[in-house]
Amino acid sequence: MYEVIAFYIFSILTVGMFGIVVMSKNALYAMSALAGGMIFISGFFFILDAEFLGVVQIVVYSGAIMALYAFGMMFFDTTRDVSEKMRSKKIAYTLSIISAVLIVAILCMPLVSESIEASYPAMENVGNIQMVGLILFTKYLVPFELAAIMLLVAMISGIVLASKKMDEHLAIEEDECEMLKEGK
Amino acid sequence: MITLTHYLILTGLLFAIGLVGVMRRTNLLMLFFSTEILLNAVNIGFVAVSKYYGDFTGQMFAFFIIAVAASEVAVGLGLLILWYKRNGSVDLNSLQMMKG
Question: Transmembrane stretches, by residue range (chain B) (predicted)?
């Protein structure tokens, strides 16, 4: 019973939050709503007995990714409303049709996968976090290491992209200021 | 009782919201937000399938999706900041310089 109530509450809240993200004109509101939606999604993970993923969702998404967006938004002018011109309608219609077909395919998936068999069935007396560790460090060890390398590469590239040009940019700005002064 | 279909419908709904965002937005930062919505919607679907079929592969996949999303944001925001410094705008229309 509690599961049903929790599911509907979290669904409504998540859809509402993400609706705000998509519709809001203010970038700051959109970011806050996205952070809220991420927290509510971790609620689904807890309902589905995936505690580890729920915690990872809160820590990584709401913690790390949202903090990164917040830092990124300091570089942009966020107080101004986002002005957007609509692109051609033809692209939007084509993409809508493709996405509608995609959603029908997603919802039909249980029908075609009736005979699916669990390759890693849940063991008895083993908690979720223990089970995740068992599978992650046996079968998925190589993807795990690759993910670690990918995160390292992403971190280095993020630092290089965001910070290396910072001095250059400031230098260029000073040069431009001097040139403007000399010009006048 | 909540069944797998409930979760799949929710996943489809959230995915549709994300797609609307991708189609409607022309601000690149907002496009990033919509991409996060898409990834999160798929994550819910994976975990729901993992629970109702008693298989842990779905949770593993969701775990790696989170890792990919984290690195995507790190690289994407770096590029976005660079573009903003050069162009003063993160609008998608400012990227159209290869018009034939």
Answer: 6-22, 29-49, 61-84
Q: What's the whole-model pTM score?
A: 0.82
B15 → chain A, closest CA residue: A103
The string of pLDDT tens digits covering residues B46-77 is: 999 888 888 888 889 999 999 999 999 889 88
For an interface test with B, which of A48, A87, A132 has the most B Cβ atoms less than 10 Å from its Cβ?
A: A48
To the nearest whole Å, the CA of A182 is away from the closest chain B CA by 23
Counted domains in chain B: 1
Domain of B68? 28-89
- The answer as to whether B49 is a domain residue is yes
* B57 vs A50, A85, A119: nearest CB: A119
pLDDT tens, residue by residue, B13-56: 898 888 888 887 778 888 899 999 999 999 999 999 888 888 88
The answer to the question of residue B14 being in a domain is: no
The minimal CB distance from A21 to the residues B10, B33, B67 is found for B33
B:36-95 residues touching chain A, CB 8 A cutoff: 36-37, 40, 43-45, 47-48, 50-51, 53-57, 59-60, 62-64, 66-75, 77-82, 84-85, 90-93
Residue B29 CB partners (closer than 8 Å, separation 6+): A27, A69, A72, A73, A76, B80, B90
The answer to whether residues A46 and A9 touch, using CB atoms and an 8 Å cutoff, is no
What CATH number is attached to the domain comprising B36? 1.10.287.3510
B100 assigned to some structural domain: no
Chain B closest-CA separation from residue A65 CA (Å): 6
Q: Which pLDDT does position B88 carry in this prediction? A: 76
ipTM: 0.89
Smallest Cα distance from B97 to chain A, Å: 16
Residue ranges of domains in chain A: 140-184
pLDDT band for position A45 (50/70/90)?
Answer: very high
